[in-house]
Specification:
CATH topology: Recoverin, domain 1
CATH superfamily: EF-hand
Number of strands: 2
Protein name: EF-hand domain-containing protein
Radius of gyration: 12 Å
Distance between the termini: 15 Å
GO molecular function: calcium ion binding
Strand order of the largest sheet: 1-2
Pfam families: EF-hand_7
InterPro entries: Calbindin_Ca-bind, EF-hand-dom_pair, EF_Hand_1_Ca_BS, EF_hand_dom
Keywords: Calcium
Oligomer: single chain
Length: 85
């Protein structure tokens, strides 16, 4: 997956989980996304501590919500992790 494809994929996922159409992924929306991902790959649901860690990793401006740009970090991380599996 090249950079443009990754950005387009991240934007589609972002739009799907930005349920209130605020232009941000809030913590409850990110939790839903992560729970759905865990179910999809037959993994245990993330703990609140793990969700908090991911929020802290992604939320570079510390506003407790994830912008599209910040969200792209999750996509890059997923590609890196899944690519090495």
């Amino acid at each position: 997956m090249n950079s443009l494809q990754l950005i387009e994929f991240c934007n589609r996922v972002f739009e799907k989980y930005d349920k209130n159409k605020s232009g941000f992924i809030e913590i409850d929306e990110l939790t839903t996304l992560l729970n759905n991902l865990a179910k999809e790959i037959n993994s245990q649901l993330p703990t609140q501590k793990e969700i908090d860690y991911i929020v802290n990793y992604l939320d570079t401006n510390n506003d407790n919500k994830i912008s599209k740009t910040e969200f792209q970090k999750l996509g890059k991380l997923m590609v890196k992790v899944l690519g090495s599996a």
